[in-house]
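Model the whole thing, not chain by chain.
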Amino acid sequence: MTLFFNKVTIIGVGLIGGSLAKLMKAQKLCGEIHGAGRSRETLEQAVKLGVIDHMGRGSAHAVEHADLVVLATPVGTFESIVREIAPHLKNGTILTDVGSVKGGLVRTIEGLLPPGVHFVPGHPIAGREKHGVGAASEDLFRGAKCIITPTEKTDAKALEAVTALWTKAGMNVVMMEPEQHDHIFAAVSHLPHAAAYAMVSTVAEFSAGADNYTTFSGAGFRDFTRIAASDPTMWRDIFLNNREALLEMLARFMEDAQAMSRAVRWGDEAYIVKRIEEGRKIRRSLIEMKQA
Amino acid sequence: MTLFFNKVTIIGVGLIGGSLAKLMKAQKLCGEIHGAGRSRETLEQAVKLGVIDHMGRGSAHAVEHADLVVLATPVGTFESIVREIAPHLKNGTILTDVGSVKGGLVRTIEGLLPPGVHFVPGHPIAGREKHGVGAASEDLFRGAKCIITPTEKTDAKALEAVTALWTKAGMNVVMMEPEQHDHIFAAVSHLPHAAAYAMVSTVAEFSAGADNYTTFSGAGFRDFTRIAASDPTMWRDIFLNNREALLEMLARFMEDAQAMSRAVRWGDEAYIVKRIEEGRKIRRSLIEMKQA
């Protein structure tokens, strides 16, 4: 199979959308790339940087005649964007996304599409501290995992094409159920972010006036703020669209934090040491995984 | 004032103790350095690496005739070490430490020392992911803060000497009350570590079997494991010796985590966005601080 799309439309030309555009151009996987999105300024920058060829007047117009449409906006916008573009998608178009939430959202999108439009839900696990199209790079995805969550409705050929696209980006494509994806990412990504925001709130209360506690932050708090330095709209949307799984993880986490607090109060050395050793073990396994 | 110590004894020749020894040698601040500590193997390695000149048979013997004694073991060992070495310290010896807890521990140590031995409590904010004397470097301290927490009992000349030592290490020395130190570090360091251990416990429950959640960790959970990859004895001791301040911070943090959980449950977008924006603001201020 030759992977080639005459017209690609990317809705949301930020770090991920921009990096995908750069990759498709670098590997000559497309004829032309149209960009759409809320911010005219971002699109103008993307055209100027050569990341996209054309900027659309609106998503509905931009997707006309497209062979591949990529949703790369915050997940909270997906439903309304799909409602808007659905009537303008040609027969045979592949629609995919890069959202961090699947589950119910995937079912909703599937319900909005006309027959003959093929939706393949995807989630490339890529990111860096810098945001925006200015930070986009065709190497962003290399070596990382991309989760694809097909359903019983997913078209086999469209699935094959999207899998091939992310494989060409250098990603290890993993397939799973949309609901399993959301449970996993509630644990390893959404919970850490929610906890980091809570932590920043806690410490921020001591950041006013002359003895600003944050000026003394060593590695501990600094690492939390790295996690917390994320896009507000994107993360608000992730939290609210993966509500049930995130609430479960937050509840579990608060139990574990309470248990740690109780161990500190009562001097339960064995409990504390066990938790720390667990942390080291998992850290080592992650480092080995990365090196493997 | 010329800063020079004929004999220096470092008790606990790990990353911090070893780095201080290297620095004092590199800057010719001492005649000879004796090392003491629990692990004979570590001390032999330190001698072999040229970090220390002699390894003591025991702390009591190693501190005899020393002009400067540095406690660089986990804080939970300080009291018993000071009880052991106190009768062997000569008149005029400066005793200092690099512990992450001050407060009550400082008062305890002061109460154990004979008159004429000058204790200057210190806490260089330095560290890296690697531990042990093999990772020691005279540049470890450069550009970071060192907290010194003198009390009404602290000798002025000894204070001046310890301040000069850390200044020569490239550190910005900050003075404060021992209790204020413990409150600040409970917030910016001990709480983040305790929360990271709790988080690892939460996610570790999903790490058995084929669908090991941790294999999907992106930046979020990975940053937590970096914090959690610390020395178990060191952190157990810090938690138990800064109990009250850490319990206060854990309680505040759990309130904030509950508030975040409630906002997710009820779709309180404004609350979530406010917390995320707070995180970004603090992150930016920390980055600017580092660049300044």
